[in-house]
Structures are given as structure tokens and as C-alpha cells.
Design goal:
This protein is an alpha/beta fold. The chain contains 11 helices and 12 strands. The strands form 2 sheets. It has a 10-stranded mixed β-sheet, sandwiched between helices. The chain has a two-stranded antiparallel ribbon with strand order 6-7. The chain is globular and about 50 Å long. The two termini are 23 Å apart. The structure holds 1,4-dihydronicotinamide adenine dinucleotide and magnesium ion. 1,4-dihydronicotinamide adenine dinucleotide binds next to helix 4. Pfam families: Iso_dh (PF00180). This is 3-isopropylmalate/3-methylmalate dehydrogenase.
Length: 325
Amino acid sequence: MTEEIAVVPGDGIGQEVVPAAVRVLEAVDPGFSFVEAEAGDAVAAARGTPLPESTVETVEAADATLFGAAGETAADVILPLREAVGSFANVRPARAYPGVDALRPETDLVFVRENTEGVYAGHESDLGEGVTTLTRVVTESASRRIAEFGFAYAAERGADVTVAHKANVMRTTDGQFLHAVDAVASEQGATYDTELLDAMATKLLLDPSQYDVIVCPNLAGDVLSDLAAGLVGGLGLLPSGNVGAENGLFEPVHGTAPDIAGEGVANPSAAILSAAMLLSHLCHDGEAARVRSAVEAVLEDGPRTPDLGGSATTDAVAGAVIDRL
Ligand code: NAI
Ligand code: MG
């Protein structure tokens, strides 16, 4: 059966790293067909909307989506697309690779980030006279759902769960989040630790080896996973998956990198590792493992893009990954 993959490169280096990842998918050839769709700043300028309805339809209809990044319009693109695929969990693995100069080479953890609410629920108001407000939404159902997903994800991997929160200050919202996590844990007989998220930022930096799977609310996961990118050698290495109901959308954690866009030197590893997550999601585990080991081999032996101290182009790195498959 041919599976249909929506490909949405977006803006900036999305236009460079996503085609590189598609080349790798074509090389492992699990029988995918690809449909390209537009989103982001460029299509907003050309067609008046950063997310044409046709793109949403393509993503909804596809078996999975590979997304790059959008620039200024990122929030108008990625939040509706995550919704279009029914995603409630954002899975962000952060691990250090041999051969890459990492601040914390022992880092090997996975963020399981709530993907639908918190401060990103979109309830912001300008009350005038210099007063603005934001409503933070935390529901019991979404908190239970991410906890169930997180405990199942950790159990499959034999990993420990740590829950990041700030319930000492946000007593009602994060209080509810923690309460829901605790209820799910007792139902499942699962165990977990908790950390206050500000303290966790320090502990992650000093000793990331104490964590495996980190379950957290939306904003906490966004910030802590970028911190983890710094531990492992940069944003060019972090893949992510927006998963949930059935369909999934996979994207590098990084943005459009305007400082290097157009030069052909963006690190395609994050996008290629996102493609590997897409393969796993569609149960092509053998192909996913081949892609991961090929990326690891290239990270260890080169060629490397400038962010990792090399001088190779995006295409050269993708080509080297394909040679290693
Ligand atoms: P960014 O991730 O685009 O760049 C941060 C730094 O990391 C830059 O120095 C960049 O050169 C470097 N970098 C990122 N990815 C890289 C790669 N693959 N290879 C080599 N170096 C890489 O984040 P920034 O600068 O905060 O945002 C730039 C634009 O991207 C903004 O317009 C923002 O809205 C958008 N953005 C979009 C996202 C999305 O669509 N999901 C996510 C994050 C940012
Ligand atoms: Mg982010």
C-alpha cells in the first residue's frame, strides 16, 4: 500500500532541509508518495494567507506530514497544522551523538510536551491603556491524555518519567495538571518524579543524565527542549513529532534560521531525524533504524555543516547519509 506523505517545507532553511530529508526517504523507499503543499511567509505574501485551505486539506488527507518551518507566520501555520492532524503530544528527543561537540555528551532524554493548551491556547487580550492579558488553559482531559501518552511512551522504552511543573505558583492550573498526572499514574501503577520547571532548567544543564522522559505543559516543553538543544550541540540536531489521534506531523525543532537561509549550509540532521520519526510512526521501524544509524555515522565521521564545525553543504550531508543507508 502506498502511503501519502504531505511535504510542507515552509520558509527559510525549511526549503533546504526538508528536500534533503525527502531525498533520504526516497532512498529508503518504504513505498511513499509525496504531495507538496505551501505554508508560511512566502505564501502569505503571494496569496494573502500563510496557511491556504488546500494545505490544511492535504495535511489532513495524508498519512503523515513532514514540515520544515515558517518565519514570522509560524504561530499561524504550525498551531492550526498541529490541530489539523489531531495532535495532542509533541515528542522531542534530545540526545548527544558521538563525534559532535556537545556541552553535555551524556544527554539522552525525550520531552513529551502537551500540545494543545496552556499559554499557547491563544486567549490573549489587549485591554488598552498599556494592559495586556493572557489566559492559561489547563483542562483535566488534556492533562490526563498527555499523562497517559507519556507513561505509555516511557513504559515502551523502560524509561523513568519526570513531570515538570510550576504548581507552587500556578496552583490552580498546574495543580490540576499534576493532579491528573497523579491519577493516571495510580491507575496504571506507574511511578514518576516531579521537578519545578525553573529548578529543572538548572538541573538539566548540570546533570541531564538524571532524566529520561520529561512530561510537561506546553510552554515548559518549548523552552526546556531548546535548552536541551544547547546541551547536545545545537538546534540542527533536534527532531520532533506532533502525534496523537492517528495522523502525525514531523518537524525539526528549529525555525527558518534567517541568518543562514539561502546559503545551502543548514544542518539537515534534525529534518532527517524527523523523517525517521515519521517512518517509525508509520511502523516502518527497519527503515527508521537505518536512517538513524546513517545520520549517526555521518555525525561521527563527517561531512559536517558549519554549525558543527565543518564546511559541508546541506546537500553533501544528505548525500553522505544516503551513502551510509
Ligand atoms: P531558529 O531555530 O530559526 O535559529 C536559531 C539559531 O540556530 C540561528 O543562529 C540558526 O542559524 C541556528 N540554526 C537553526 N537551525 C539550524 C540548522 N538546521 N542548521 C544550522 N543552524 C541552525 O530560531 P529563531 O532565530 O528564533 O527564529 C527564526 C524564525 O523562525 C522566526 O521567524 C521564528 O518565528 C521562526 N520559527 C519557526 C518555527 C516553526 O515553524 N516551527 C520554530 C521556531 C522558530
Ligand atoms: Mg520552540
